[in-house]
């Protein structure tokens, strides 16, 4: 079946501009995660959705970052007034609802490489 | 708070040999899960193996096995019979009660022919 897809694969923008990154999770996965990965680092958690609601947004670095998942499937990560430090690969992952007794491993998309000039 | 430490920035192994990638963790949660992911140069994270904190036996998935030593808080990944296609970044991750995984910084593995 289809995996997690992310669009665009690459995005180049200028400092101060607004960008939207899209994630289409695996059908049936209720949990959706956004991560940011800088060069030489592991994925850094941004936000976690369970269904339509943001269950945990503690990883969002500041109020320029916002994410939505209005119908419980596709999610959009929105970054306002982009800064050069926002340049990174933004990864999306989905899974079944987290459960203490099951791995419910995350399935990752290919990422969006954001470059802010 | 959860913390994952991967102390090996890079590892080299000869094709067909076995290699161990180190991972230590720290958590105050009693129940947690440990994961290993592979990230090839294409960028996509690929799930490899999972170990639950209450699992008594070490997890195995094909050529991958997880050497879980709970008292030492280590969860090392062992890859047997390395293949050229195993060259990639490998990330150890942990998920506790918050359900938010914490990832290590990764280890780069290069398999030589």
Largest sheet of chain A: 7 strands, mixed
Q: Structural class given helices, strands, pairing of chain A?
A: mainly beta
Counted by DSSP, the helix tally of chain A is 0
General form of chain B: globular
Estimated radius of gyration of chain A: 14 Å
As an assembly, this protein is heterodimer
What's the helix-strand series of chain A? Answer: EEEEEEEEEEE
Mean pLDDT of chain B: 94
Q: Describe the biggest sheet of chain B?
A: 6 strands, mixed
Regions with little confidence, pLDDT below 50 for 5+ residues of chain B: none
Strand content of chain B: over 45%
Strand content of chain A: over 45%
Radius of gyration of chain B: 13 Å
Regions with little confidence, pLDDT below 50 for 5+ residues of chain A: none
State the end-to-end distance of chain A: 37 Å
How many helices of chain B in DSSP terms? 0
Structure keywords:
heterodimer; A: about 120 residues; mainly beta; seven-stranded mixed β-sheet; four-stranded antiparallel β-sheet; about 45% strand; globular; B: about 110 residues; six-stranded mixed β-sheet; 12 strands
């Amino acid at each position: 079946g289809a995996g997690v897809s992310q669009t665009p694969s690459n995005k180049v923008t200028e400092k101060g501009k607004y960008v939207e990154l899209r994630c289409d999770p695996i059908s049936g996965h209720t949990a959706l995660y956004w991560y940011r990965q800088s060069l030489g680092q592991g994925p850094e958690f941004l936000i976690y959705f369970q269904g339509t609601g943001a269950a945990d947004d503690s990883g969002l670095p500041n109020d320029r970052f916002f994410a939505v998942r209005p119908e419980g499937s596709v999610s959009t990560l929105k970054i306002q007034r982009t800064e050069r430090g926002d340049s990174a690969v933004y990864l999306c992952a989905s899974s079944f609802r987290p459960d203490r007794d099951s791995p419910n491993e995350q399935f990752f998309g290919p990422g969006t490489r954001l470059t802010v000039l | 708070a959860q913390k994952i430490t991967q102390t090996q920035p890079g590892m080299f192994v000869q094709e067909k040999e076995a290699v161990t990638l180190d991972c230590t963790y720290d958590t105050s949660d009693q129940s947690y899960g440990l994961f290993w992911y592979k990230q090839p140069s294409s960028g996509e994270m690929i799930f490899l193996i999972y170990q639950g904190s209450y699992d008594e036996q070490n997890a195995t998935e094909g050529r991958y096995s997880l050497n879980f030593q709970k008292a030492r808080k280590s969860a090392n990944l062992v890859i047997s019979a390395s293949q050229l296609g195993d060259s990639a970044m490998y990330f150890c991750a942990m998920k506790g009660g918050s359900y938010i995984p914490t990832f290590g910084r990764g280890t780069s593995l290069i398999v030589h022919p």
